Sequence to fold (944 residues):
Amino acid sequence: MPLEKREMQLLDENELSLNLIEAQYFLKNTRDQNNAKSVLVLVNGIELAGKGESVKQLREWVDPRYLRVKADPPMMLDQKQTFWQPYASSIPAEGQIMVMFGNWYSDLLVTALHVSKPLTETVFDAYIQDMRAFEQDLKNNHVDVIKVWFDLSWKSLQKRLDNMDPSEVHWHKLHGLDWRNKKQYDNVQKLRQRFTDDWTVIECEDEKARDQQFAQTILAALEYCPEHLSQNKEKWKQAVIPEALLHPENQPASDEDYKKELKKLSLKVAEALRLDDREAIIVFEGMDAAGKGGAIKRIVKNLDPREYDIHTIAAPEKYELRHPYLWRFWNKLQTDEDITIFDRSWYGRVLVERVEGFASQVEWQRAYDEINRFEKDLVNSQTVVIKLWLAISKDEQAARFKAREDTPHKRFKITDDDWRNREKWDEYLNAAADMFERTSTAYAPWYIIANNDKNTARLEVLRAILKQLRAE
Amino acid sequence: MPLEKREMQLLDENELSLNLIEAQYFLKNTRDQNNAKSVLVLVNGIELAGKGESVKQLREWVDPRYLRVKADPPMMLDQKQTFWQPYASSIPAEGQIMVMFGNWYSDLLVTALHVSKPLTETVFDAYIQDMRAFEQDLKNNHVDVIKVWFDLSWKSLQKRLDNMDPSEVHWHKLHGLDWRNKKQYDNVQKLRQRFTDDWTVIECEDEKARDQQFAQTILAALEYCPEHLSQNKEKWKQAVIPEALLHPENQPASDEDYKKELKKLSLKVAEALRLDDREAIIVFEGMDAAGKGGAIKRIVKNLDPREYDIHTIAAPEKYELRHPYLWRFWNKLQTDEDITIFDRSWYGRVLVERVEGFASQVEWQRAYDEINRFEKDLVNSQTVVIKLWLAISKDEQAARFKAREDTPHKRFKITDDDWRNREKWDEYLNAAADMFERTSTAYAPWYIIANNDKNTARLEVLRAILKQLRAE
Fold:
């Protein structure tokens, strides 16, 4: 809806306000429906163009209780953090509207304008490409992203600076830029033109027209809530199940060899994790009883409990379902911990959610690319992503279930669900095969570890971690 | 369970581990049951006594996936933040165990040892008293708080410092203290003895005994999950309903006077809020259609949307119910916003939750004191808490409901629930009466605003805010 390209009509303010409030409640009521969405409004622009005023006016026209506003001061883009990480927790839930003044574009501009060594055009454009891909993923996951640039000519800007009330300076931080400097102004314009072609650009000479154009842009976004697609037209090409999954037999190690090797390897892993400057994310997937818990124990054996975090992923909570499905994982990566272990992970989307029908066909089929982009962003932010699939045979699983039922301190680990999931063994194998084919990337490959013999597998897990830590 | 006072028996490690795992799963399964609780373990002590090692050993004995560990570096207590604010979001949910290395006691010790002007004993003891009250509130709300002090004699500490491997220094930050300084060691001991009489104090000369005593302390805590009380023995003394609630008639203002006065007052409120160094929390309560939304609009009229935040409080989410009921409000106060407006609030506990039976008798009757302590902590941390009750008569409410149903852009505001709540009008009046009597404190009084005439009421709201901002 590039509103700036059609002639904008000034609407009666009462009518506009009425329409906005109706649209707000309409959006609110989409929650948990098949046309649910949220609206994220990114607001940027030339200083003194009046983005604050337009949002203020909008908040007067709407019900202000259902329009959240977030204003973070712009931050330099950080080598150790993806561009979306500072904002992930504020992505609005279905039914909500969020206006973000500080966002990844303000960070990009500030970085481009302030670093001692300016970003090259290639790097700048690569950021824009990543940001657009992220926004597309948001849109596919029911977060509509509306981007509005408040523009102002050099002449008008200078006039507004002349007329500025000194008491107002507090509210215009001016982005730490010298807006009296024509060269700097031109530089901002040059940079922003590299990304604003899919934005609504508002000329801010006239305040009334500006506020109306902004409000009408938001109104159009609120009113547009099409039903979600669930079926893909293209036929799905099922991947071939890897041999390693069908035959997870491995050589048992002697008890003595195992103990010696385990001690050596787990010390080596702890040391390698500590020496590595990157953050480490270790992901475990596999059938029930595949030995994830036992493998995790051996990894952390020589780590201090303050060095790592373990997330055991269960079904999402209701409030998490009102966000993009990766959202709960974004938020789990916000900590300072250097080592994060996931006992099950975002791959649930293409495993349990696919097999059990919790995700629609469109959703799980799209998820492979989304996951790849997510992991790539992490890897580009100095994170190493280590993905481990523990493979067992169906017979071995049955034996372990039985053993669990017979062992007092393991009885808790087994439920009726576990036996039920087992009935879908082949569907899970197919889902795993597709997952390996589509998400085993150069920057984050899968390691399939045969685990019919637990001890040997535990050593293999440690070796895989060492390999991936050194591989890059 | 002051375990240190009875003779500690060394248990067989396998048996201890088995018991711990069983107790962990038992705790996990209390979730959503009538004996649900979580366990928060605060860990402090003399450097090198081995608290890290003991937690590490514990995490080897238990299922490490269900024992979270958090380690924040100690921070100086902050005048602008309550002592619990940095930790509120990490309070474990029912069924969970969390070990906190950095906690309010480490912050208190660091503050006492590092400020240029040392804390007086009175101030130090006042902090301890507030911390204990907070912990008691946690316990009443199903978060068991276990405090463990790892102690070490001066002699042993010196010996361990002598033997310390230089490569380990990294993991022992030593709290920035000089542990070779006897005077400083004695000072830590003197200070900690002012608060550790309700702690488990572990003598850490022997490592095996230390780890066992710690694990056994945790085991005892995990196993102790009594059913929650729901009935109070004492008879409840219902407060008299204030006249202002029974007769919310007020003088209508002329349109012209209203507009003039509104403009003046709302500018004054915006200025007062901005000039005030404290954070401001403005709480609105009142029957449905009492005019909360309209009053909020007039408060924010002259504020920039980036200066304030509005929270509209609905029923808690399921995951929020697994925490102390104030928890979701603690987390809403973590932002940098200087002005926070609550459209309904924590008072839901003693209003809707009481009337509808969502809170047990014990819970809502205890809540008045909990809320008072919560608000006192805020006020002591340079926050002004402004509480406004908008009062309307039952007839006026009926008229407004009708009007809403007849007005297109207000139709969304009215639901069947609203008509249903109306049937309990008298019960809500009683609940409000008790609330005023018990929570209108000197530091955070209630303002009851008669609201049969909306315009006059809106002016009164603005005047009340001005009054409370200047009152302190």
Notes: The two ends of chain A are 43 Å apart (CA to CA).
